[in-house]
Design goal:
By secondary structure, the protein is mainly alpha-helical. The chain contains 4 helices and 2 strands, in the order βααααβ. The chain has a two-stranded antiparallel sheet with strand order 1-2. Keywords: Membrane, Transmembrane, Transmembrane helix.
C-alpha cells in the first residue's frame, strides 16, 4: 500500500483520481474577447513573402524528386519511345519527349513558376491587408475569443 504525501500548501493529501481538493474549485479558464482592427501591410508583406518563398523551395524539391522517380521507373523512356513511333514520318525523325523533358528544362520552368508565385502571393496578401483594413474600419474587424487556463 502506498502512502500519500501531504500537500505543501494545505497539509492534506490530494485525493486519488485527480479530482480537486475539497474547498478548492476546478481550474478556471480566463477568456478575453479581442478584435483585430488593423493588419499592418508591411508585416503582412514580409510574412507572406517568406511563406511563399518557402512554398517555392518546396515546389522545386518536390518537382525534382518526382522527376527522378519517374525517370528511375522508366516512364520517360517508355513514353518517348511511343511518341517517336507515333510521330515518325516517312523521312524519319519524330518527337523525342525524353530530350524535351530533361531535368534542367523542367527545373527551369518550375523556377519561373515559383518566382511568379512568390511575387503574386506577396502582392495579393499585401493587397488583402489593405482591403481588410478598409473593411474593418466599416464593420469593426474580426472578433476573437482567446482562452488561458490558470
Amino acid at each position: 500500500m502506498t502512502q500519500q504525501v501531504p500537500s505543501a500548501q494545505t497539509g492534506v493529501a490530494p485525493p486519488r483520481g485527480g479530482a480537486p481538493l475539497p474547498g478548492r474549485s476546478a481550474p478556471r479558464t480566463r477568456r478575453a474577447r479581442l478584435r483585430v482592427a488593423k493588419a499592418d501591410p508591411w508585416s503582412v508583406m514580409k510574412i507572406s513573402f517568406l511563406l511563399s518563398l518557402a512554398l517555392g523551395v518546396v515546389t522545386m524539391v518536390a518537382v525534382a524528386v518526382l522527376w527522378m522517380v519517374l525517370d528511375a521507373i522508366g516512364v520517360f523512356s517508355t513514353v518517348s519511345k511511343t511518341m517517336v513511333e507515333v510521330t515518325q514520318g516517312s523521312s524519319g525523325g519524330g518527337f523525342d519527349l525524353q530530350s524535351f523533358l530533361s531535368l534542367p528544362r523542367v527545373l527551369g520552368f518550375t523556377a519561373i513558376i515559383a518566382v511568379i508565385d512568390v511575387i503574386l502571393v506577396t502582392a495579393l496578401c499585401t493587397l488583402g491587408s489593405f482591403i481588410y483594413n478598409i473593411s474593418s474600419s466599416f464593420v469593426g474587424g474580426v472578433e476573437l475569443t482567446l482562452a488561458e487556463d490558470e
